[in-house]
Records
---
Amino acid sequence: MTQFDVIVVGGGHAGTEAAATAARCGARTLLLTHKAETIGEMSCNPAIGGIGKGHLVREVDALDGIMGRAADAAGIHFKLLNRSKGPAVRGPRAQADRKLYRAAVQALLAETANLTIRAEGAEDLLIEAGRVVGVVGASGTAFRAGAVVITTGTFLRGVIHLGRERTPAGRVGDAPSVGLALALERLGLPMARLKTGTPPRLDGRTIDWAALEAQPGDAEPEPLSWMTARITNPQLHCGITWTTEETHALIRANLQESAVYGGRISGVGPRYCPSIEDKVVRFADKNRHQIFLEPEGLDDPTVYPNGISTSLPESVQRGIIASMPGLSRAVIMRPGYAIEYDHVDPRALRPTLELRDVPGLFLAGQINGTTGYEEAAAQGMMAALNAVQRAAGTEPDRVLARDEAYAGVMIDDLTLQGVSEPYRMLTARSEYRLRLRADNAMLRLTAKGMEWGCVGQVRADAFRGFQAAVSDAIARARAEGATPAQYRAAGAPVNLDGRWRSLLDVLALPAMPVEVAETMFPWLRDLAPRVRAQVECEALYGPYLARQEAELALLRREEALAIPDGVDFAVIAGLSREMQQRLEAARPATLGAASRLAGVTPAAVAALAVHLRRA
Amino acid sequence: MSGTIFAIASGAGRAGVAVMRVSGPEAGQALAALAGGLPRPRHASLRRLRHRGEVLDEALVLWFPAPHSYTGEDSAELHLHGGPAVIAAVGDALAMLGLRPAEPGEFTRRAFTHGKLDLTAAEGIADLIAAETEAQRRQALRQAGGALALRVRGWVERLTDLLARQEAFIEFEDEDLPEGLDAAVAADVAELRAELAAEIAGAARAEALREGVRIAILGAPNAGKSSLLNALAGREAAIVSPQAGTTRDVVETRMVMAGVPVTLSDTAGLRETDDVIEAEGVRRARAAGAGAEIVLAVFAADAPPDAETRALVEAGALAVVNKCDVVPPMMAGQAVSARSGMGLAQLRAALEDAVRASAGVAMEAGLTRPRHRAALADAVAALDTLENPLPELRAEALRGALAAMGRLTGRVGVEAVLDRVFSEFCIGK
């Protein structure tokens, strides 16, 4: 068969999620990738989730995606980050067995209906009348489709730097696909250069674990997917070691050998994931840096030393490793390296992740300037949801708002502001952080997913049950309550102001011990933990959320005011040239988006609003 | 709001030099036509200005091509010899070249539209346009120069820094962050909050400067209050007669004292009366006294001091004993005679001190708009919710404060906060 609805190119985290999503929506889907056996490969650190990232995984999961389930099936070390902080910023994370993760992703794809997987690279795009209508494979076969999603990661002019060596490549061991890169270049898309790096991999059998501080996972692992009842893999410890003065001296002495400091890399790297060279130079007053030693698998001796990504020559890397406690005899299995690559300026995309100037062509993942498996998966899913619409002949409109999902925040940031470094999800990026929690992703998104057709029956049923239980419990907590005297008598010293307070009013007060609440309202004990957590969040954050309502009403009003595609910012009265240029570069889709654009003044937004209302 | 505009930028009236400012797309053409070619950008050159063969003036001219000008547009300045005839001739010439006189505030509006001024600076210049007196002009200048903007920016910097620490604490739990990062935030917030609150208190006075300082003259009937007003104002603003109760309503006169605009109010004499109209006058007199920053409590040297006026003195009013040319004063207070002028210079000096004190805080570049005060008050209110065991709720408080301040300086985006996080802390496992 060569006729499909949606073709996904690339079998990484964006591609697999995109292919699975399109197929779940009922679209006949083709996944084209170089090698079937590397589908679902974790090419960087073997962890899924974290703060912000774990939120994204839960959102993908709420739309019935595969990432959370695969991570649960492969996880060998689970940790709920920020456990001591409030639920809004808790982020679930799993260290995965790399092999098991690949296997889990491949198994989930294999059981997905409507999905064809072909181990074949894409060499060219089929374009008719300015629209992408398919892909030419390496075999010369033309595959036709209503929409194409490109998720090829760092393959555009990818160059690997290891000391002074430079090798054109995608990932280590994978050839860059030249044909497709040329096809994209012919489209004349705006490009920019980024870099990222990876640490050397160590042989865990040569690490002196006994000399290191061990970091166990949580005793009760918290799954990433709602659908996972229990984690069954044996759980491993990670280790912690530190760089030493000797490490730093060695790095300083060899800076010129580093690809970045030797001036051989021009791309911008991520600030939150600097190379060890960067750390030593920029934070010269720190006499040690923490390194996490993360096992890559249950029966795989490879260890990922997190925090020491480097582009120094292999010989120097050996010295660096040997200078750290517990690693004096550690053997490097694969050296670390830096990779430089082109990405497409995501401002060329609509909020649907379709290229504004090339209908039918969608981009997701690292090619859009992001970093991270979770960021890639969420984009793959959103791109596929819109590609399915495009293929069906409907105008794509599946966009999540900033107050609905981190996925919405990310895509809005990307398509509106562009990127200046590899984009990583952080909860700080959301102005609605208390609303966008990992624990309520289903409540936020699953109903929407059901409407979009990407949610299966099992999930839909689970969601309905959960939603009903939560709203019942919250309603009950709002209806039941007591007077201050009654609360005091039970042992909760609330203010004696004679005002009746509901359970919801008092549940989050420091003056209300859990046991007292449970004694006064015994039904709390009977709630499922996940339902009770929602009641507690409502009590804790409800007053804050209520305060944001006015702001949200304005946001929604402005989001509803669409800026037509063809609008000429140059003719709008009252817009300065600078404002015209900023708006032209980003082409915001709505008035709300325009008002969020960095550097756009309120006066310019007002001028734009006047123009739109008049038009 | 388009075209090329011109106006005298150096204020009305005679002066040694008058600056004619020109801004807009045809500014260069007009300057070249008058000065016989464009001078080097941003350099003063002496040129003979001619129009239709006639020499208009010998002037210093400056050429500011866009965007490096006050308005962000092509602009020119002609420093003319200040006579009205020269100004009128140059203005006529510019109009004949197709330019038009600027609307009030139009230069500033254009500067704002081209991103040359932030909102605080633009509002300062709006005040400048309306400024009547020297003190107001000085304050407006300071604000336009961005003294307020500078301070607001300083607060925004500190809030950004505090939020960055809070966000780092939330975002990078498993990183090797400095100990006590979170605790330090609370102490610094308390300090910042106190500064903002003090600024708000000062802001009320700054507003007084914009509105002027109110001085009310109160006292018993026939103490000579109207004579005193006339003597201080230097003109016959109030009707004076020997008959008690002549002044029945509040008579106001505006003047400048110590460079500050002042409203001086004469009021009906304070006494119990059955006359309905006079009773209303007395009520208004008391109201004027209550609303004034400075009260002059006037006694007559030839009459026993009345209880109500004495009470005013006890409440902080400035005691004045009038008619001291008739009888020597028997009580404490500024001894004056409105009629003979005796003691008036001392009284004026005392009043000027009081006016200066009243406007004092406002003489510093202060918050002169309700908008500024509201933004600061919102920031303080947000910071008041900071005390919370959960870091994400503390971050909400800081975000709220920063958003409120952003209404003065423009929004502070998350990128600014992240920049701070990544430059201050070594993040990255």
---
Amino acid sequence: MTATTVAAGPRAALRPPLAVAWLHARYQFVETLRVPIAVLGNMLFPGLALLFFVIPQRAVADDPVAATAAVGQLAVFAVMSACLFTHGAGVAEDRALPFDGYLRTLPARPGPRLAGRVLNGLAWAYLSLVPLALIGTFLTAATLSWAQALGAVVMVVAVAVPFTLLGLAIGYSMSTKAALAVTQCTLFPLGFAGGLFLPPQMFPGWLDAISRLLPSRAARDLVVQVTTGAEAPGLAAPVLLAWTVAFAALAVWAVRRDEGRRFH
Amino acid sequence: MTTTTPGAPPVVVEHVTRRFGAVTALDDVSLRVEAGEIVGLLGPNGAGKTTLLSLLSGLRRPDGGTVRLFGGDPRDPASRTWLGTTPQETGLPETLKVREVVDFVAGHYAAPMPRAEVLARFGLEELAERQTGGLSGGQRRRLAVALSLVGRPRLVLLDEPTTGLDVEARHVLWEALRDYHRDGATVIVTSHYLEEIEALAERVVVVGGGRVLADDRIDRVLDLVALRRVTLTLPGEEAAGRSALRGLSGVQDVVDAVPAAAGTRFTLLAADADAAVRALVASGLPFHALEVRGASLEEAFLALTARGATAAATAPVPTPEVSR
């Protein structure tokens, strides 16, 4: 055994925050990857929805604008789902593990750890778009110019931020079981009412009016605008921003409350 | 933010009180541990051991008093670069491999112990590629304790490191910890097994009911708990015999009384068995079938904490005195 002795000399500094964030992102990614069913469920559902609900309707699939919009709204759903599950169910699960308490005794601040978690969620959000992009490219008339594609990549972050915050609010305020149920109960109604499965053009007037106030609808309209050029309602950006602020407040409240309860 | 001071002792706890609702887990506890010591924290479940460790590792803050880690506040991550703690073995990330868990923890330190050395110290080399979910309880426990050394800490806190392990695995862990202590580290280990503390510690701090009941060299505390168990039969009812026996000098407690063929069979704990037997003879009690043997460590220990708790309630000096 090569005996390195106990640390001697002046006390070592903390590792740089970025290094710690990257470390946590990497290992959380690997952890998620090792449970393939969680990954597949997240990644396949939007792709399957595209395959079963859009591809058979050739009127939509063969029309470049309609097809691109259909892929775009399912992409919003994919990102929303990745963010809500990674953070809503994932955080609640981690909080229940004693390992979480151990990690808090390591010499690292909570900020970089949280950043690592958000990075991991973002990575899965991007990955969940891969099946959609492939199916959209090869089986529909959906097209994107390079500028539109770049816009779409940026939009992923804009959509991911509010739903990451909502996921954190759920994950930090509930038990594992409750968080899983609440995540699902949030995801599907928001998806449906937000026009992510059926285009909002098919909504009756009253549903369309409610829909326009939802974060999922605002995100969808903005994504469709970026990818197809169809003008989004003027309210879309302010609505998404307002929800982002509200979810941020909720997330901060949940994290603080959890700190107070478990680590006072 | 506080900073750690060079030369400051690893642990200084001063008049610390910590409550959980109506329960007082720690009641005005003071403790100082110098560099290079290996200290056993001994006490029954609920005595406050784990609470004390959670304060030292920065997980919780005291309601009153101060906790210092190398002169710094343990709530500040920078104060914890010299600290090593151990996760509960049930909580390891199941899907990560042993080497990945070690590397992940190592990633939090500027100059961690090389992975090969961590694994070698605890005989984990063969298991490096296994996912932690597939390890046996003993293997997980070894990994959990190994993680406490990954950052090459100067202070290691171990909460019940070998509870539930078989004898052999326990000895492997103890040897690894003694090795690391010889390298110059300070170690604090909690246990409710006197045997474990005896194997590891040089100094033992007995806690009970949230207070420090005894704090001394291990051999002194062992003397303190060197009780004898005296068994005898007295004719007649339990109550009469019990009160007569309690009054004898040297008798600490009457721990058991069962009806026997010719009366009642009593079991006493005696701090000084010689004195107790002499008093018994002098009292003229018509006893028979006298047996004297060493009390089990558990019995002795429970007696010590029970006595300490009553002493602490009435007197500010909690160390129980036993004439030897």
---
Amino acid sequence: MLAVFKRELKAYFASPTGYIFMGFFLLICGIFFAFSNLLTASPDYISVLSSITFVFLIVVPVLTMRLMSEESRQKTDQLLLTSPLSVTGIVLGKYFAAVAVFLLTLLITCLYPIILSFFGTIAVWEIVGGYIGFFLLGAAFISIGLFISSLTDNQVIAAVVTFSALLFIWILDWVIQGLPTDRISGIVFACALVVGVAALVYFTTRNIFVSVAIAVVGFGIIAGVYFANEYFFDGFIVRTLEWFSLLKRYENFMMGILSLSPIVYYITFSAVFLFLTVRVIEKRRWS
Amino acid sequence: MIQVIDVTKRYGQHVAVDHVNFTVEKGEILGFLGPNGAGKTTTMNIITGYISATEGTVKVEGFDILEEPEEVKKRIGYMPEFPPLYMDMTVQEYLDFVSDIKKIDRATKKRSMEKIMDLVKIGDVRKRLIKNLSKGYKQRVGLAQALIGTPPVLILDEPTVGLDPKQIIEIRSLIKELGKEHTIILSSHILPEVSAVCGRVIIINKGKIVASDTPENLSKRLSSAGRLSLRVAGPEKQVLKLVRELEGVKNAEVQGVKEPGTVDILVEAEMDIDIRRPLFYALSRAEYPILYMKSVDLTLEEIFLQVTTEEREVS
């Protein structure tokens, strides 16, 4: 894992990728810092952290598009997968390399609050908490990018799809507000989910029996839940989509609240996408 | 050393490798021969654990690729058809990285890297970026990568493809040299290459093993048709008539006239009859001197044709 980590980290700075990421990130961060802190003489640094999250949409695809897709295009995955490394080790090495570049950039931006502290008092712990949230949010976005990069051997496609996925998460809270919350639509949505899972199983395994069994069990669970607690499906769509609402959890950090549950949420979110990445690579070897 | 047990690989409806069984003994150099798309690369990818077999398994030194993949992968050095090189690294950085992922001891790493770079003669390009190297050098870096950690088994997929004749000879003698210490499986679609290097040959076609023998036996078995090419000084019609009347000659035909006053003919003998001596005496008695006579090697296509039709007759 360490060898892959070191190689990836070097590769970021042997190509323009690392510099583009850092440069763009620092530029945007600097502009916001100048306008909302320096020019207005405001010590409210945390508002910078909350307004620059949109920068992830552009820089995370730059950081992650190459990670897995370039390996399969250049056939270097043959070297990695026939070496005594585990797939998990390879994926983790790559993930941590991307996270390390991000962390390094974040450390540079720490200069801004330090500059502010020369001119007045700043809320140190609030800013530390804000940074933790910002870091976890970025790490979760990177795990999505890594996952998408493992699905294709074309960097451009990886970048565009990652951008779209992040954009979707970005507008998710806004979309959720417009969704129906009544019971019927909740049940319909649950049924659609079950059908989707069954169809996915069918297209990956071509086993009609297992797919039908999954669908039947799924509908059974829905019916069971409905009879046990009929209020369960009120607002079911909204609650399901809120699982993916990375930004909603981020608001807590911005208000200076540092609680355990969003931290666990972000780490779990990243872990799930890393696990999916490992599965995709393993599956490609079996198909 | 290596046991390939009933390995099958299916891609949807297409069967790439169909119940392949063979074993390779320690110290053997095995040649894997077959046309493009015969399943050579797929078989090699399965042995090295790059892809998984649909059915069957592979054992290396008793370790099963499915149960203990890391133990198997530690023992194999693989050079795929397209060497897996990182273009943004120098040769030295790359080999250093490969040593790390193969978990080579820090203490011995440097020395073994030097030894390998000497062996494949890439010491003079060690500081250069891989993307700037020529095809031949890239191929050698690919081979160096497989040698790192001196694994007991080497698997080389078409190691000489795309090289110039001088490099081909060098790589071949290098492989022979390596065969003293490693067990090697080598794939190729060039027959002379395999017979020059390998102790045993497996011919694979459409995912199935169609023949497995030493190169000598294989060519003996395959050249039993006994085809000879002759150049005889004499009139075309008489020479042809004389040859055709000879006992044991199945067929004879004129190939053309390349030297004035001579004729080139292709003679095909009956099974298991050596007609070279009778041919010589008959023509010399008639005072038509033979200027040259040589047996015609079967081309790879003909061998495949022959082997595959033979198999059909057996089954």
